[in-house]
Specification:
The strands form 4 sheets. Strands 5-4-1-2-3-7-6 form a 7-stranded antiparallel beta sheet. Strands 8-9-10-13-12-11 form a 6-stranded antiparallel β-barrel. The chain is α+β, with helices and mostly antiparallel strands. A hairpin with a 5-residue loop joins strand 1 and strand 2. It is 24% helix and 32% strand. The N and C termini lie far apart (122 Å). The protein contains 8 helices and 21 strands.
Length: 440
């Protein structure tokens, strides 16, 4: 039984000894060792974290990050304005005094005498053409060969692959791609298109756009598919102002003027035909004795090495030895659209501005339609030859330049109201047609 205390109030409380274990203090060596272990652990943890992040970052970007959308750069080809004839000045040229005549006459006579006595030889001729020859060779770096593969059927219904060669001109470039102008025949029914650069480097090409009116096409080549050496060798040819070309200008042709790629021919501009009626506008043509093959691709250059046109057979008469060239400036807007994958608008009419003499006889202002192209948008809508186009949409049409400018702003597939004046017995009657804009 439990013992009672002296007071008899219950069991006696006993006190036990409580011990508190106190760890001995760390020595300086132990503290230093622990700090060293802690630092090494931190470094090791940081290293493992860095390695883990580096390994997982590409995977995370690939599978977790939102895909980036990249847009290719657009091509911009500024247009040219036709030259304007300056008004003649009425100020008479200053008259030379007798003293000035006596001073200039001996100088002119001395120069004339020296020119007559100078013995011009072959070396002088080569020196004169040396720089021009270097320009022609440098221009050839912007010429490429188009290999077009087509499948045709022979007389026995066997499929035969035919590979054609055409010349192309590099007319524009962006950081992602460059663009080649070539005849439409080069891409017609082509199953595969390959481009060979001037240095011999091959590259696959895709069709970017076609213009049936000028019979030309634009191809694109992805620059990322080329070797570094080939990228550096690409020469983008500068597009010149065709409106500045005059009869007598020295020019040369490149591409395939002799029927072989990288052939050249030198000549002069013999004649400039202005305001020639073409489909949906006016254009100018150059006539030259320099050689040119339209079907294989021949391009006209000025003495600055700028492209100013390409050879066409549409206006060449049978047996005519002259080469006919389309002026580039008339098609810069179309080329810009094709290079950006946009179809050029097409109405399908040919005509001319109503002359002042006919206006005085009562003919309305506008474009006299000499021909509505069969199966064209205007023809299918009901517009006929002999109609006078006076309004395109909300825009009044007075000149062919007005018509071309407003048509260029329309889009393929868009519906536009075309207002015309049609002669009915004794007077002109106003009529409207809704035309669906087509693609050239």
């Amino acid at each position: 039984m439990p013992e009672k205390n002296q007071m008899g109030k219950g069991p006696e409380k006993r006190h036990f000894i409580h011990e508190k274990i106190v760890k001995p203090k760390l020595t300086r060596f132990q503290i230093l060792r622990r700090l060293l272990f802690l630092g090494c652990g931190a470094v090791l943890f940081g290293f493992l974290a860095a390695v883990t992040f580096a390994v997982s970052e590409p995977w995370a970007k690939k599978f977790l990050a939102e895909p980036e959308t990249t847009e290719s750069s657009s091509v911009s080809i500024p247009t040219d304005e036709p030259e304007t004839t300056p008004a003649p000045t009425t100020t008479a040229p200053p008259k030379e005094t007798k003293e000035e005549e006596s001073e200039t006459a001996p100088i002119e006579e001395v120069i004339r005498n020296e020119m007559e006595r100078y013995p011009f030889g072959a070396e002088d001729l080569l020196s004169m053409y040396g720089g021009f020859n270097e320009l022609v060779q440098d221009t050839n770096k912007g010429i490429v060969t188009i290999h077009s593969v087509k499948t045709q059927t022979d007389w026995f219904d066997n499929s035969v692959e035919i590979a054609g060669q055409y010349a192309g001109a590099v007319i524009a470039a962006t950081p992602e791609e460059f663009f080649v102008l070539t005849p439409r025949e080069a891409v017609s029914d082509a199953e595969a298109i390959e481009v060979t650069l001037s240095d011999g480097s091959p590259a696959l090409a895709q069709l970017k756009g076609v213009d049936k009116v000028s019979d030309m096409a634009v191809l694109r080549v992805d620059i990322s598919t080329l070797e570094d050496s080939a990228k550096e060798g690409i020469k983008v040819l500068e597009l010149g102002n065709s409106y500045a070309v005059k009869p007598g200008d020295l020019i040369f042709t490149a591409g395939a003027p002799a029927g072989m790629i990288f052939s050249n021919s030198i000549g002069t501009v013999s004649y400039v035909a202005k305001n020639v009626a073409v489909v949906d506008g006016n254009s100018r043509l150059f006539y030259t004795e320099a050689s040119g093959q339209a079907d294989q691709g021949t391009f006209l250059f000025n003495t600055k090495g700028q492209v100013i046109g390409w050879v066409t057979d549409d206006y060449r008469a049978e047996g005519d030895y002259m080469t006919v060239v389309r002026a580039l400036s008339d098609y810069k807007s179309v080329l810009e659209k094709l290079s950006n994958g946009i179809t050029a608008p097409y109405l399908g009419i040919m005509g001319q501005e109503v002359p002042e003499s006919k206006r005085q006889e009562g003919m309305p202002l506008g474009i006299y339609i000499s021909r509505a192209i069969a199966d064209g948008p205007a023809y299918n809508a009901g517009i006929q030859s002999g109609d006078i186009l006076t309004k395109l949409g909300e825009n009044s049409i007075v000149t062919m330049r007005d018509f071309q400018n407003y048509l260029d702003k329309l889009k393929t597939g868009e519906n536009v109201i075309v207002q015309i004046q049609r002669f009915d017995r004794e007077e002109y009657v106003e009529m409207e047609y809704e035309v669906t804009v087509g693609a050239r």
